[in-house]
């Protein structure tokens, strides 16, 4: 009977006892507090306590590996505590962030603002009444200077039925969730050469928009060095700069994966020594540690504007821009600023509309097939045939075979007419159409990074590129002082106009070569015949005045344009193949399987992703790949030379370009002897670059 009254009474008294209590301590540059996830504890249980630190602005403390300088926080048991050192487990370290001290020279790892360091705590099995915890928090806190500080923190935990501390438990749980989890894939470190390669293999790979950084537990690598990142379909590879030349045993640490939205996740790993895993590299990292997709899109748009500006100097665009230059001279000669501005705006409109159409076509192709690339329009025989004939007709016009719009003697008033504006507009369209395949050397990687993004991102980057192409003429149109620097029209313009016909004919010849590779020699012959028929129709229209003559001339020109496009639908051409190189060095067709066979043999492999219609590809052939010095280096080092000809559509090549995040050709891959993943080389090659790679073997 007495027991029935005493037990409820004791329970009621315990409920009235105060829970866990402590006060924050001012350590100097941080407020330090000892907290626990329990308000009351039971004898023998293990719970999580934590050192909570609120740091002054601008000050930081360190991770378990402080980096090049610094010391991590510690906690020690003081006299008067009811627990011993053995009751405390190790800190659960949240993932840190970089603390650059001296750019490129000294790098630390740590935390600022707030830090909660949880650790397991075991309550004595014989605890009664309450448990007194008296700890010393010892830490180094730094801004421009470093100051060692200590804080004596305490906490009293009543003993009784276990009861959670809601606020502290939630806070501790939040910081435990920030700790790295175990890496569920495999990790290897290839330390045979410098830089070391940390290869991470995981099912499904990583998002190529992520940034990955390795934080070592020791000091085997250079802490401030960049860690270039490359992705593959099965993972990623980081290049690490070693602190010394050797690595004894595995490499331990964590990787921190930061997604485009700024979310950070850490993984603990132990990387044993070995070769890089297959399919864990080769795709360049798209977004470095910018932290936000919007920022990287802005950077891509700026790069696109610069690339568009440079595009004005490319040989495939200059012939078309010569027409625009003639129009600008005429417009300035009129003396009416509104006419000059009109020309600039119409030209810009033509360029932007064409680049928008190109972006829309790429988005549509990507939606239908899963892949898309630049230069796709020149893989279509009818398109190449029509472009060839357009270039030929423009050349005839420049030679004076027929007139489009006003002549030199009739400038003035007609410049403001619809035909003048439309002329500027279609000049912009033509410049964009023939300029698109020349984009590769400047924007191949950037466009490769954007082609798999949302449609709006693709459109923004392509419009930025078009704006860059049109910008010089837009500036000339709206800055009177600059436009007045253009020469005045005169007889010299007729001579210059005729001279510009010959670059147009050369462009037509280049397109004919492309047509032969895409649709075969018959398509070339019919396109030449079509050009002849168009020229005959122009001649007939100039000489005849009757209605019948005009009808016959029109039919001849239409037939000359339409029939070659129809015949170009055939696909009988053999690709570029080995014939482009057979004079100097044996080559063979590229395939993923052939690369595997050659790399298994231990041979170095050079792969040329090329196309007949790619002007930069042909320039690299002439200046570098077909040079005696490069071919001799290949032969001396037994380099296997593979050619991936993308002149015509090839889904396997398209998939490889997508995998390497390239928008189109050229693309060059270099597999050193024994490597299973390649280096992606720049789009513009040099003999020094290629020979240096080969002779480094």
List the defining traits of the structure above:
697 residues; alpha+beta; 5-stranded mixed beta sheet; 26 strands; elongated
What does this protein look like?
- By secondary structure, this protein is of the alpha+beta class.
- Helix content is 42%, strand content 22%.
- The protein contains 19 helices and 26 strands.
- Strands 13, 14, 15, 16, 17, 18, 19, 20 and 21 form a nine-stranded mixed sheet that branches. Strands 22-24-23-25-26 form a five-stranded mixed sheet, covered by helices on one side. It has a four-stranded antiparallel sheet with strand order 1-2-4-9, covered by helices on one side.
- Strand 17 (229-232) and strand 18 (235-240) form a beta hairpin.
- The longest helix has 33 residues, at 337-369.
- It is elongated.
- Mean pLDDT is 81; it is low at 5-18, 287-293, 405-419 and 573-579.
Q: Give me the Rg, rounded.
A: 35 Å
Number of helical stretches of at least 4 residues = 19
Q: Per the principal axes of the C-alpha atoms, what is the gross shape?
A: elongated
What is the helical fraction, as a range of percent?
40-55%
Q: First CA to last CA: what distance?
A: 92 Å
Q: Sketch the major β-sheet.
A: 9 strands, mixed
Tell me the structural class.
alpha+beta
Overall pLDDT? 81
Low-confidence stretches: 5-18, 287-293, 405-419, 573-579
Task: Kindly estimate the percentage of residues that lie in beta strands according to DSSP.
Answer: 15-25%
**Overall strand count:** 26
